[in-house]
Amino acid sequence: MPRCPWARSERAILYHDTEWGVPEHDDCKLYEFLVLEGAQAGLSWETILTKRKAYQKALAGFDPKQVAHFGNREINRMMSNAGLVRNRLKLESAVRNAQAVLEVQREFGSLDSYLWGLVGGQPTVNHWPKPTDVPASTADSKAMSKALKSMGFSFVGPTICYAFMQAVGMVNDHLVDCPRHAAFYRERQKRRFDT
Description:
Elements: H1 10-18, H2 27-40, H3 45-58, H4 64-67, H5 72-79, H6 88-108, H7 111-118, E1 124-125, H8 139-150, H9 158-167, E2 171-172, H10 179-194
Parallel strand pairs: 1-2
C-alpha cells in the first residue's frame, strides 16, 4: 500500500494507518500529543514513537491532573529514565503543560473545546502531492502557538503546533496518493450517518 513516505518502520506504519490525522477529542490524548510533539523537537518522530510507552508510564498515563502535581523528585526520576528524552527543560515542560491544561479546563470546560476552537472546530483537508509541499508551520499554527503560550504552555512553537495539528487531525496532511487521505472522507461521512 502506498503511504506517506515518512511511515517506513512497522511502528511508524501502524501509527500512520491508525492515528496520524484522525481527529482527536480526548483531553488526555491531546495532552499526550502536546507532550510528545514537544519532546520530539530536534529529534525524529521514530525516536518518540519508540519512547511513547515509557512516557505513558512515567506520566501517569498522560493524566494531566496527576502530572500537574509532579515536583523535583518526579522530574529527577524521569531524568534517570533511559526510556525518555532526558532533557530537563522538556520534562519540566510536560509538568508545566499539565498545569496549563487544568487551567484551560477550568476556563473553557475542556482542552478539546479550547484547542479545536482555535481552528474553527473542523479539520482542514489539504491536498499535497509531494512531501516537500507540506509546510512546517501555518498562520493557524502560529496563532495556536501564541494562544497556548498566553495560557502558560511551553515547547509550543509554531512548528511544534503544526506537527500537533497534523497528529490530532486538525489538518489532514496525508499526501493525495496515500489511502489515508481518501479514508478521512469515508470516516467523516460514516460518523455523520452514525450520529
